[in-house]
Amino acid sequence: MGSDEAEGNTCDAHRILGLPDVEKRLCHLCMIEIIVGTNRPESCSSKVADKTLGAYKSIGAEARLLSLAELPTSIFAPTAYETKPDAFTPFAERVVASSGLVVVTPEYNGSFPGILKYFIDMLPFPESFEHRPVCFIGIAAGQWGAMRSVEQLQQIFGYRNAHIFPERVFIPGVYKYMHKQGGFVDDKLESRIKHQADGFTKFIDALQV
Ligand SMILES: Cc1cc2nc3c(=O)[nH]c(=O)nc-3n(C[C@H](O)[C@H](O)[C@H](O)COP(=O)(O)O)c2cc1C
C-alpha cells in the first residue's frame, strides 16, 4: 500500500485536532453527535433527541447528545468571533471528531433557532462540515413539522460541502403526537427515526470506504 493510501485510512479529525494518527475504523473517539438544536429548557427537541439516541444505541452505533443548552455563556461575547473561549473547545472538538451529525431542530418563526445558527457560525471553518455526513429531524407544533427549518439547514450544510443524507424525519403537531414525559403517541414516529438511523449509519460507512 502506498503512503497516500495509508494516509487516506487515518482519521482526519485526529490529524486536525493534533492527536496521534488512528485508523478510521478503529477510532473510538469518532461518534455520531446528535445536536439538540435549541437551548429552550424542557424542549420537545431534547426529548426527540433522547429517542433518537435510543434508536442509534439499539443498532449498536456509537452516538451521544450534544445539547446547545450546555453552551458556555462566554461563547456569546462579541469577541468570540475572533477568539474562542476555552470552554467552547470541547464542543468544537466533538463536531470535528464526529463520524456524522444528526441535527434535531425545532421550527421557530418559520426557521431553525438562532442559537443553532450561532453555534454553526462559531465552529471551525471549513473542517467542521466539509465532507461530513449530516442528517436532519424537524419538530414543530404546526402541521409542517419544521420542514422549513430543515430545508434552510440543508442549504447551509450544502454550502459547507457536507454529505447530506436524503431521508429526513418531520414531526408535525408535536404537542398532539408526543406525551409530556417524552414518549410518542404514535409508534410510527419512532420507527421512522429508527429507519433513518439505520440508513444514516450505512451512509456513513459507505462514505468511509
Ligand atoms: C420562539 C418560538 C417560535 C416558534 N415558532 C414556530 C413556528 O414558526 N411554527 C411552528 O409550527 N411552531 C413554532 N413554535 C413552536 C415549536 O415548534 C414547539 O415549541 C415545538 O415543541 C418544538 O420546539 P421545542 O423543541 O423548543 O419544544 C415556536 C416556538 C418558539 C419557542
Give the SSE map.
Blueprint: H1 3-8, H2 12-16, E1 32-36, H3 44-58, E2 63-67, H4 89-97, E3 100-106, H5 114-122, E4 133-139, H6 147-159, E5 163-164, E6 169-171, H7 174-177, H8 187-208
Parallel strand pairs: 1-2, 1-3, 3-4, 4-5, 4-6
Helix pairs in contact: 3-8
Bound molecules: flavin mononucleotide.
Flavin mononucleotide binds next to helix 3.
Q: Judging by the overall fold, what is the CATH architecture? A: 3-Layer(aba) Sandwich
Could you tell me the radius of gyration in angstroms? Answer: 17 Å
How many structural domains can be distinguished in the coordinates?
Answer: 1
CATH superfamily: Flavodoxin domain
The H-and-E topology, N to C, reads as HHEHEHEHEHEEHH
Could you estimate the helical fraction of the residues in percent? 25-40%
Low-confidence runs of at least 5 consecutive residues: 1-6
Tell me what portion of residues adopts beta-strand conformation. Answer: 5-15%
Count of individual beta strands: 6
Provide the CATH top-level class.
Alpha Beta
Question: What small molecules does this complex bind?
Answer: flavin mononucleotide
Provide the residue-averaged pLDDT. 91
Given the C-alpha coordinates, what overall shape results?
globular
Major pleated sheet: 6 strands, parallel
- Cα distance, first to last residue? 15 Å
> How large is the count of helical segments?
8
SSE-based structural type: alpha/beta
**CATH topology (fold) name:** Rossmann fold
